[in-house]
Design brief:
The chain has helices spanning about 1-30, 35-45, 60-65, 195-204; strands at about 50, 70-75, 85, 90-95, 100-110, 115-125, 130-135, 140-145, 150-160, 175-180. The N and C termini lie far apart (about 85 Å). It contains four helices and ten strands; from the N terminus they run ααβαβββββββββα. The strands form two sheets. Strands 1-7-9-5-3 form a five-stranded mixed beta sheet. The chain has a five-stranded mixed beta sheet with strand order 4-2-10-6-8, covered by helices on one side. The longest helix has 30 residues, at about 1-30. The chain is of the alpha+beta class. The chain has one domain (about 45-204): Ctag/Cox11 (Ctag/Cox11 (Pfam 04442), Sandwich).
Length: about 200
């Protein structure tokens, strides 16, 4: 009887520890979502877009002349950020390799200045390495005054190398998705979206 009771107590302890471990793992996973997304941005994992200094050279553009792809835009706001955020245009069809400029609109619906930062990815995942950004509001923190509404630009192109990928070349539609998170402690270098747009306009 004593042995059976001991086994039952051991089983109960094991069950409790297992349950607590599962709860802890869920908590850690939830808290790490922004960190996971930032990791994806740096590594390209999980369909994350890449960054370049300029559009592709003329010879690369000539190689894909006439090839197009549809780009869809998606905007989201995480809990705790009193913003409205959405694309100005839901989708466009663009030539592969051609530099394009898209805009999102963000509004601060709160009563005080708020700083946010966007994380991003694309779907399907195989397209991530071929969706190239040149400039983007998502590269820096963005501060909006109370009641302010601004347009936020992103300059991008689809890498012509996508047509050489046996899997990715079958893709005919790419979705670019952003989620803005509140920044509790803004960095001294936080920019307004208007500043980012002026920089884009000066580059043509």
């Amino acid at each position: 009887m004593t042995s059976a009771t001991g086994i039952q107590k051991a089983n109960r302890r094991t069950g409790i520890l297992t349950a607590l471990g599962a709860v802890a793992m869920i908590g850690v996973a939830y808290a790490s979502v922004p960190l996971y997304r930032l990791f994806c941005q740096v590594t390209g994992f999980g369909g994350t877009t890449q960054v370049a200094a300029a559009a592709p050279a003329a010879d690369r553009l000539a190689a894909v002349a006439g090839r197009t792809i549809k780009v869809r835009f998606d905007g989201n706001v995480a809990p705790g950020l009193n913003w409205r955020f959405r694309p100005k245009v839901n989708d466009v069809t663009i030539p592969i390799g051609e530099k394009r400029l898209a805009f999102y609109t963000a509004s601060n619906t709160g009563g005080m200045p708020i700083t946010g930062r966007a994380v991003f990815n694309v779907s399907p995942e195989e397209a991530g390495r071929y969706f190239i950004k040149i400039d983007c509001f998502c590269f820096t923190e963005q501060t909006l005054k109370a009641g302010e509404t601004v347009d936020m630009p992103v300059s991008y192109y689809i890498d012509p190398a996508i047509v050489d990928d046996p899997i990715a070349r079958k893709i005919d539609e790419i979705t670019l998705s952003y989620t803005f998170y509140v920044v509790d402690k803004p960095s001294p270098g936080a920019l307004s979206a208007a500043t980012i747009r002026n920089s884009q306009d000066s580059k043509g």
